[in-house]
Amino acid sequence: MSENWNFITRTILPVISQPGLSPGQDRENGLGDISFSGFFSPIDSSKWIWGVGPVVLIPSATDDRLGSDKWGLGPSLVALTMPGPWVVGSLFSNVWSVGGSGEQDINLFTWQYFINYNIPDSGGWYLTSAPVNTANWEADSGNKWTVPIGGGVGKIFKIGKQPVNAQVSAYYNVEKPEFGADWQLRLQLQFLFPR
Hints:
This protein is mainly β. The chain is built from no helices and 13 strands.
């Protein structure tokens, strides 16, 4: 953005396969709501890299069961450090609904800590744990939190000149809403655009 500031973006377009939630209901496959975060981050940072900015929820789900049909907006903060082969950090955000035709309001907190170990001399392979902990403040007591634990493996490589980050990981939900999933399987493909 300038001599002193970077603008770092993070866009999540979830592809979801949702099992039926009641007898006779079929599995629903499609796209969920897009989440866009923008972080203003100082160029000259110390051992810690940090950024702060907005997070925007865009109602893009292909089915009502896969999204909220609400626009959302809120603050987001990220901080990380990279000692040796490690990348350790945390991302926080909270989104409130600001419009849309969905029936339920949104007040969703997200905390994602991440720990990566870049395996030396492995050609871009790494081990990772990056669970997405959420709290739905609009839900009934006892159904607010989803708290996963687990991890996986990833690799950074190039397709032509395009850097790509591919990852597979699995997480067990130690805390979840009454009708929440027991497990999460994350298949992630990120196209990287460093400047």
